[in-house]
Amino acid sequence: MNKQKTAATSIGLRIATTMYQMGIDGLPRNYELLYEAYSGSNPELTKEFLAIGKKKSQRALDELGKKFLPHHHEETLVSKTNARMQVQMTTFMNLLEQEKSSLSDYGTMIDEASRGFASQTEPDPATLTRSVRKLNQATELQVSKSAALVAVAAQQAAALEDIGSDIANFEKMKFVDPLTGLANRRAFNRAVVRIYATPALPMMCGLAYAEIDDFKRLSELGKSDIGSHFIQHVGKLLHAGNTTHEFVAHLDGNRFAFLIRSAQESEIMRLVDGLRTAVASKPLVHPQKLRVIGNATLSIGVAMSTVANDAGKLLAYAEKAMTASIKGGGNRATLYTNAVPANANKGWIIYQPE
User: Fold this and answer.
1) Predicted TM-score of the model (pTM)
2) For burial by CB atoms within 10 Å, which of 80, 206, 219, 247 has the most?
3) What is the CATH number of the domain that holds 222?
């Protein structure tokens, strides 16, 4: 078992033990909440989790979950959205009724004036003047009411647009890592499943695992929560270096993943090396002391979708390749391939930095 799996197992055991000791129900949403809190990937969540106190009620945990893991509480959003929609539709119906009544009154006034004109063979100027004045007043009133209706309708349209925006943002944030702004593990899992959606014809791509080298030592140099700052730093550099808009995700801790759509190993490794170079391009600076801590480097393992017939094997091969990069000293990318060179005793090729 490599050190990444050992670390994950350690966190998992710690969470299970903590949940038991605190009397927290073994619900999936509780497990993920504690995982996020103890993995250190979201310092704000960790801080608020600890602030709840020793006795953590399910209600308090759910309130925290609604803030940091809203995907577990979709029913709350649906309920709120439904209530808002009902208010908006009721308001619209009332506006339409008002407009209908207003138009009816306006029509009545026109009808009365028309009958008055028709009943007189030679209407006197005074009567005509009064009728014209009444019609002008009625028209001005109707125009005023219509303008008010348009203004209110515009407000209603804006409110409905806000509701739509809230729903869209909610759906988007379900798959975004709050610390880095990259895709999260949930988005990564979904993307990996899609690779083999058609087993006989998998998506042509390369999947890469990446780990920040020497993360523990560099994080401890800054102490406090410099680890989170370090991960954010790497996330920003990956954003900037991802000029071809490949799929890049922050999984947890100091681990990232890339999914690059190409059938060419050389092209995938070129793009992977580009991301690795981007991460090393700017030094990490202590946020308070403003001193340089060091440049980040990545150990990366890549596996092509063509060497595996399911997602499990593909992930395992990428993990194996990343372990080879770590054991090789870090700051390199390893490609796991079934095209083994003659006399080679390993199923991978190391691409070292120039």
Assistant:
1) 0.57
2) 206
3) 3.30.70.270
